[in-house]
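Sequence, please.
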């Protein structure tokens, strides 16, 4: 019964992730026509807001998020006696993050990139917690390695969210020519509103965000391969390296095929799968946590 609730919640978390990504990226103008002139334009966002598909996605997002909230509330109630200490803490954190995202939803969309970053990181946190709860406590991964990779992945995810929030998705069309620009550090300030072009006064101002995200993704892939090699006896370690490869491949395809919306949503979903794989690897330390 508890595992069924966990699997249902995990599936809904991916539905919410895909729906929210689709709504946000479509409003930005990803895959709009004519590309890239229509990207980031108010008229594009207004037309997308009135589209039938947008209404359907909003309904799917609302229903999935509501049911997920009910499951997040039911999990600690139904499984409290059966859960170990670590699992109880995870379900309470799951409920707290869900409540935080529900509150944040009242302020979404927002001109502040911090709201987008918090939404994306919060959604991936839910996936990670559920995957950790579902994973068996078998094998032992190095906590320092998993922790460092988690922080790096969180930073990489925040960078991807900033590309969306700063309307930088078309900055490298046809190619990235300015990997860095004066004042580019302002692009990474989530408390500062405005698109990349508004902040730096250059149509290609988003290129530092895109370039950094691309190189950081390759670095994370190499790190994931290294973790997979070091912990080759753990299925979760091998899955981590494969998931990282899939995320990077989707990101490269996104660049090659002119930022297709479905590829961007796939990229986000694969990032969720990567978080789930990392959580499964971290579950190797469950036994020691539960016995504490």
């Amino acid at each position: 019964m508890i595992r069924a609730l966990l699997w249902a919640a995990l599936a809904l978390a991916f539905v919410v992730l895909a729906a929210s990504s689709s709504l946000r990226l479509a409003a930005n103008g990803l895959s709009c026509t004519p590309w890239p002139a229509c990207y980031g334009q108010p008229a594009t966002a207004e037309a997308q807001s009135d589209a039938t598909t947008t209404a359907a996605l909003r309904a799917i997002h609302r229903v999935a998020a509501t049911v997920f909230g009910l499951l997040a509330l039911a999990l600690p109630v139904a499984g409290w006696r059966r859960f170990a200490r670590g699992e109880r803490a995870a379900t309470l954190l799951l409920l707290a993050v869900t409540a935080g995202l529900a509150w944040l939803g009242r302020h979404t969309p927002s001109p502040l990139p911090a709201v987008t970053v918090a939404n994306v990181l919060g959604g991936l946190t839910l996936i990670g917690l559920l995957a950790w709860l579902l994973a068996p406590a078998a094998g032992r991964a190095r906590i320092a390695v998993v922790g460092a990779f988690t922080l790096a992945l969180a930073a990489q995810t925040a960078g991807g969210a900033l590309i969306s929030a700063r309307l930088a998705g078309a900055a490298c069309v046809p190619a990235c020519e300015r990997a860095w620009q004066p004042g580019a550090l302002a692009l990474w300030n989530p408390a500062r509103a405005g698109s990349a072009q508004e902040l730096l006064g250059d149509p290609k101002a988003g290129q530092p965000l895109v370039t950094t995200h691309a190189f950081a993704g390759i670095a994370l892939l190499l790190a994931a391969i290294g973790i997979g090699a070091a912990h080759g006896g753990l299925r979760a370690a091998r899955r981590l390296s494969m998931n990282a490869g899939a995320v990077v491949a989707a990101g490269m395809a996104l660049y090659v095929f002119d930022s297709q919306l479905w590829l961007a949503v796939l990229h986000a979903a694969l990032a969720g799968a990567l978080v789930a794989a990392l959580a499964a690897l971290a579950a190797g330390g469950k036994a020691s946590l539960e016995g504490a």
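Residues 2-290 form one domain.
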